[in-house]
Amino acid sequence: MRRLTLVLILAMVGAACSAPGSRGAQPGSPPPEGGTLPVAASPRGLTVPDGFAISVFAAGLDFPRHMAQGPDGAIYVAERGANRVVRLPDANADGVADKVESYATGMEAAHGVEWHEGALYVGATDGIYRFTPPVKAGEKGRKLVDLPPRGGHYTRTVHFGPDGRMYVTIGSTCNVCVEEEPRRAAMWVYNADGTGGRLFADGLRNTVDFAFHPQTGAIFGVDNGRDSLGDDRPPEELNLIRDGGDYGWPVCHGGDIIDPQFGKPGSCAGTEPPVLNMQAHSAPLGVQFYTGSMFPAAYQGRLFISFHGSWNRSEKTGYKVVSVPFKDGRPAGPPEDFLTGFLQGDNTVVGRPVGVLQTQDGALLISDDNTGNIYRITFRK
Question: Is the pTM higher than 0.70?
Fold first, then answer.
């Protein structure tokens, strides 16, 4: 399919924008409370399929990660660099955030966000927090679950399933090792109030995001494979995460690659293989099943995945958003490029996508923790 390259030329408002490839806000310098967000020029050359359009929804954020839309219609974004969650209202529905409001603070490296039954749940490095409106300025959320300290992978993702339970993923402390802490490299499940926690699945090196299939309720999660086995091994994984499943790490990768340090013959037997292997070192960090009515019918039920991009591959890879077709509750083909251009022809990185969120109007929001932007993708009917 021919694709349309978009060069977004946006007026400069407020503070000067950062150069391409740098974040819009510096650590410890979040946008002013209640102030108008700076509008950054989008990196040139972002590409989406014909008929789609891309614009900047918000700019100048401090390492924006995962996002959620609240019951008030505003977008809530985890600002990892500022240890908080901000609220971005769009009262006039023009597709541009009106201002930034600090909403939830006092957490270490906020990453995961989820609204459930009128409360905001935040996955931070040190635990899962609940904020129940009305939230006063500076109010501490209720810490529902204590989580292990930083380690090598320190993001914490939280989502609620159709069963009303809270699912949490935590990555490993290392590239490859034997973990002593059972909550590492695993998915745990809790009651909504944080009680009754138990191991749901393990062998998941770093599952930074997961989503529930809109028809079956099955959990699909993306796992970041280990390093130092070459440019193309092991693959990044899309897993169908089952209760009690063992997904191999650290002894087996990609369903059939025995780890040279920790594995032995037969290590892959009894492990759950991926339902889809993806290019090694792409770093999948965000997922979203599309159920909206804005995009064409061909996109219904697809799983959108953000690739943050490689850091140690001899030739860079990732730095894009792809879509995976689904049929009968399973992947039905390889990933297809949807949003590209973050990695330019001369290997210059101008963005690193993280969170993927479908909003109530059917648009997609993509957070970029390299520039501090959030992009909005729409389809022009």
Answer: yes
